[in-house]
Amino acid sequence: MEITMVVDGERVELTVEPRHTLADVLREQCGRTGTHVGCEHGVCGACTVLVDDEPVRSCLMFAVQADGSTVRTVEGLESDDGTLHPLQEAFVAHHGLQCGFCTPGMLMTALHLLDTHPEPDRETIRREMSGNICRCTGYMGIVDAVEEAARLR
Amino acid sequence: MNGSPLGTSVPRKEDRRLVTGRGRFVGDLQLPRMRHVAFVRSPVAHARIVSLDAGPAREAGYRVFTQADLGGIVLRAQSALPSYVETGQPALAEGKVRFAGEPVAAVVAADRYRAEDGAELVDVDYATLPPVTVAWDAGAAAVHDEAPDNVLLERTFDAGDVDGVLAGAHLTVERELVTNRHAGNPMECRAGVALFDPADRRLTFWSGTQVPHLVRNMIAELLGLSEGNVRVVAPDVGGGFGVKAVLYPEDVALCAIALQLPGTPVKWVEDRVEHLAAATHARDHRYLLTAGFAADGTLLALRADVTCNVGAYSVYPWTAGIEPLMAGGLLTGPYKLEHYRATVRGVATNTAPSGPYRGVARPASVFAMETLLDDAAARLGMTGVDIRRRNVIRPEDIPYRMPSRLVDDSGHYDECLTKALDAVGYDELRAEQQRRRGTGESPIGIGFACYNELTGLGRAASAGPRMPFRTGHDACTVRVNPDGRVTVFSGVTSQGQGLETTVAQIVADALGVRYDDVDVRIGDTDASLWGFGAFSSRQAVIGGGAAHRSALAARSKVLRLAAGLLEVDPADLQIEDGVVAVVGSPDTTIGLPEVARVAYLESNRLPDGIEPGLEATEFYDPVRGAFAAGAQVAAVEVDRTTGAVRILRYACVEDAGRAMHPQIVDGQIAGSIAQGIGGALYEHLVYDADGNLSTGTLLDYLMPTSAEIPELTIGHVARPAANPLGVRGVGEGGTLGPNAVLAGAVSDALGVRIDELPLSPSVVWTAARRAAEDAGKTPVEPGGRHSD
């Protein structure tokens, strides 16, 4: 099937099979390997991207469902001049990542969190980020990072 | 940067690519002509393979490989221990399957979707055999013909006069404890890409492995390739925790398939369901314990019988001995003891193989030991704190020879415990606990654990059960390039621990250059000379030691060369931030770029007796190991109605030696505690009686999230270890405490015995109900209130 999406500001026209997940199409046809696949059943959150500004599990969404949508991935966070997004800066500063595999999904979920909860307390951050699993950090650095990014906005 | 970067939390070298989506994970690799592999896996736990019909799949255009097609390759994990029964693990099952999820055939197609379509066309006929899933079930059917009783290894640790001392002890405590099977479960599952170039018979294997050199060694042997023609590359790896320190049959099959499809890269990316079913599990143990105590709480003797469920195969290279031997060697932990006898065994079952998982056996063995101490304290009318203080190894006891003959070199357990008690506000918690006892509010309890983490094992204490190699050393090459900047080729690997950063810090410090001028290449067997990889909290000590030594050797040559150019004595020179200067004469300097240029490009300026080039390669082996002391204390609140456990406070204090990067050290400790909490409260790989994994997705296998893991307080007692950098490993210690701490806290809150893990609501509720019944009181009803 033919679909059209805007991925990180770039219009892409693709031929996909109906069964192809958005995650696989982003990774394999759009070169967006920054979006990771951790469980393929919608639990771990590593594949989280924003579709029309809403966070989705791209492993549970078929690419054809995203036809006509605007998709934001981790690879669109950095500015063209190489300036990191405040969330990216904060994750680095607070050791909010170790292996970095869950990080793209964490960043996209956090981006939506900051859009919807401009001044989140730690309890809110812990609750809102609980759809994304990190196996490395114990979450302290992640909560610290999101808290600081919110403060700097 | 002025001064040494060592000991400060410099920005991690890895982070920029990882936060921008430019990480380089195996699954991200796309190569021309790449083909994808899906494995056909056994749906049953134990069966004879009556027939395997790949005809329909082949007729539909799929490449299908069976064990016969791969030439019958078998992995054999070896040990020289006399009781060890060696068994083989085929790349693909042949004749028989031994656990649900075992790979039976591999299908190759243009993409993963099609490969899975093809896998569905492979028809395998199984004749089921009686499965065994519980290691202490007597009389079970044999998993391997070589071991009719399923015991793959048994060993007895024996010191002193256990029976005599137990007979005369003031108090004996007997317990039977069972711990829950769970797994490392990194966020990136296993993955591999294999490409064979027939022109020069070279195989490249990109693999998310923790042990690339060990993988290269065995892949070359199994496939009959020259070891120098096998290149194993572990790029960014999304967590390992021991699960990826194993050479798996899927890895071998993938490489063997690549040999049969020359010039075609073959890729396998494991999905989570495969991972939970077929990657290694751990911690499925039973402890039968009898401990004798004096009236003052002194531990006098301990008799233990430990059975570890090692699953269907003895994993390469660690063998079925990895968990039982660790459990027996470190059961007594940081407690002084003379009379000790522990029989440990690894028993095969029709479940996924057990392998190394962060903390190897000790989360279970520490739970066992701490449970005995809490039990004895309660019977003797002592506090949990006092009985631990009575028995821990102290600084004046160091070096302390444990009854298993391991030598502990850190005696700061009491200091760690005291700091952890302060961190949680122990006295205040006890007062609150007392206050609540007079009310209907949910009770709170406090739990403790002291533990010793054996790290950085040199050849004398080398990890593993007398395998045909000793894992005591690593190599490192430090190269000063013609422009004066430095590239380090290190044998370490990283799955999130930040080794590129740590190695760069060590080299910058020892060589005298800026951190930003050092780049580190890791995880590529073509780039580094040798490294055993990531396990046993060894790399900061051993890989770090090798980086330190090679940087010092490179520095020595820089100074000799610079001394010749400046016509001074090398002993009068120092290097800081890449500038060589004469001590006491700061205007006489030469920059490293100029020294390096001479070394490579201007041999006409080379001083007499100095060869071109500016590089050094050194090995390091600490010979012995370094113990990292630790203590954890937590307070929990238990809902009597639901059995739910909520952590109120959690503190951990460790003697991690000298912290080279405090943020990374704390990150290791926090992450390992979180894994321990997951294992203590939630994570459980449950097999039903037929050998089906009933917690085979993340909907059933519950991993802790930011909503469950509490704020953690981490403290330090930094006592440098006796190695060149003064460091102790910190990778695993955090996982050792939570089982014991949380079980002890629940026990303290409810006045119950905890005999099994995890502390699921049903286990806690059942324990509370049993205690209430034992006390002759009305069982707790949902919505009701306990009447004490």
Task: Explain the layout of strands and helices.
The complex is a heterodimer of chains A (153) and B (788).
Chain A: E1 2-7, E2 10-15, H1 22-28, E3 48-51, E4 54-57, E5 70-72, H2 86-93, H3 103-116, H4 122-128, H5 140-152
Parallel strand pairs in A: 1-5
Antiparallel strand pairs in A: 1-2, 3-4, 3-5
Helix pairs in contact in A: 2-5
Chain B: H1 15-19, E1 35-41, E2 47-53, H2 55-59, E3 63-65, E4 74-76, E5 88-90, E6 96-97, E7 103-109, H3 112-121, E8 123-128, E9 151-159, H4 162-167, E10 171-178, E11 191-197, E12 202-207, H5 212-223, E13 230-233, H6 249-260, E14 266-269, H7 272-278, E15 285-293, E16 299-311, H8 322-330, E17 339-348, H9 362-380, H10 384-391, E18 400-401, E19 407-408, H11 413-424, H12 426-437, E20 444-455, E21 474-480, E22 486-490, H13 499-511, E23 518-521, H14 542-566, E24 573-576, E25 579-582, E26 585-591, H15 592-600, E27 615-620, E28 626-638, E29 645-654, H16 662-681, E30 713-716, H17 733-736, H18 738-750, H19 761-774
Helix pairs in contact in B: 8-9, 9-10, 9-18, 13-14, 14-15, 16-18
Protein name (chain A): Carbon-monoxide dehydrogenase (Acceptor)
Organism (chain A): Pseudonocardia dioxanivorans (strain ATCC 55486 / DSM 44775 / JCM 13855 / CB1190)
Pathway (chain A): Alkaloid degradation; nicotine degradation
